[in-house]
Amino acid sequence: MWQDSAPAYKAKRMQEWLKSNAFAFVPFSSWPPLSPDLSLLDYFVWSYVENMTNRSSHNTKQSLITCIKEKFSKIEAAQIQNAFSRFRSRIERVLAADGGYIKYIAPLYPNK
Hints:
Blueprint: H1 7-10, H2 12-21, H3 40-53, H4 61-73, H5 77-85, H6 87-96
């Protein structure tokens, strides 16, 4: 288990707690320098919600917030499973890039 490199997660006290309590703990020293390519939220969920939300215009902040919540709630388990099925290949690409960013991969959602 690794975090997003936020200072709080790198703190010695947090690392000690994670080592004692987290399943499959990976120490900070072994984390990729930047790991959005390895975060399902980053490589699928947020881009999916943004893409779906941007398909219509929003004249108010509340309209945008409502739409974001609606699109987020409509993500299906099969979509999450499909995104997760690409995780191993993403790890392999990040390793091949020495921990750096990986090349663009086609989105996991339709462009309707």
